[in-house]
Fold:
Amino acid sequence: MITALAFLFMAALGAIMRALIGKSLNRTDGLALGTLGVNVVGSFLLGLLHNVTAPTITVLGVGFLGSLTTYSSFTRDAIALFELRRVALSSFYVVSTVTICLAAAYAGIHLAPT
Amino acid sequence: MVKRYALVGLGGMAGASIRWAVSSVIHSTNFPWSIFLVNLIGSCALGLILAQELSHPKARLWLHDFGGIGFCGGLTTMSSFATGAVILGDGGQMTLAVEYVLSMMFSGLVAMLLGAALGHQIKALVQPLEEQP
Structure:
């Protein structure tokens, strides 16, 4: 019960933080630096929680970091750039997001306290 | 303004809860199917939602904030995708990890395009109704 309530609270917090950071950092020319930022930071932090067990991982990992990071906005931003005929920027956004998030997750997992 | 963020928060709760439920139901044996699935459905749903241009301003904001930023953003996740891929690679399944990353990238973009195309079809159906007196 407590876990479920904490999960809901942290999920809401993650989504609101993502919206606030997106609003201030996503650039009007279409490059979504805010979305990129939350995805990279969230991937690193979830990596750091690698050895953490339930219920903490449920609340912080699945709830907060899962909600803070997003895949749907990432695909949306990539397609939006493509539609603006900024194909190079779109490709750069896709490849850099995936590469940096994977590197961040790798670093987090390998730095994770046991 | 505060109300808009409250809608984002509520949508995030709903999306994250469904993601949690899906990952509890689908026990990924080898391939992280639950994350793959929610990311595909969420990308498709966001494409569908953002294609709508509801004339009612409140309904429009509600759909965008609750449904788009909150729900789809909360349902989908980059962090579990990235850590899932790294864990596969670290576990000696590098081929599967590469397949996971490439298939997620490709099918996520296709899902978004399909969602947007479907959304435009729905918009064409909904708009004549909305324009009636």
